[in-house]
Design brief:
By secondary structure, the chain is of the alpha+beta class. It starts with a strand and ends with a helix. It is built from 2 helices and 3 strands.
Length: 78
């Protein structure tokens, strides 16, 4: 089973909200510019913890790839 890579960004490491948001933007652009696909989410919104889960965007590498499923599609798979 493949797994994804993760970058965790914590708001308490930055002096301002702008600094926090800018580092998230930079991380996203770095990953995009280097051929990765990702999902971005708050792990703990109240604490300002953001997680970027990423993997190669090239499916020929055989890594996990984010796919959105409806509840009906998920039931069919299970």
């Amino acid at each position: 089973m493949n797994s994804v890579n993760r970058i965790t960004i914590c708001k308490d490491k930055y002096k301002t909200q702008d600094d926090f948001e800018n580092v998230i933007k930079k991380a996203i652009m770095l990953l995009l510019d280097n051929g990765y696909i990702m999902t971005v989410r708050y792990d703990e919104p109240g604490l300002g913890i953001v997680c970027l889960d990423y993997n190669y965007a090239d499916r020929s590498f055989g890594t996990d790839y984010p796919v959105w499923l409806s509840p009906e599609e998920q039931e069919k798979i299970l």
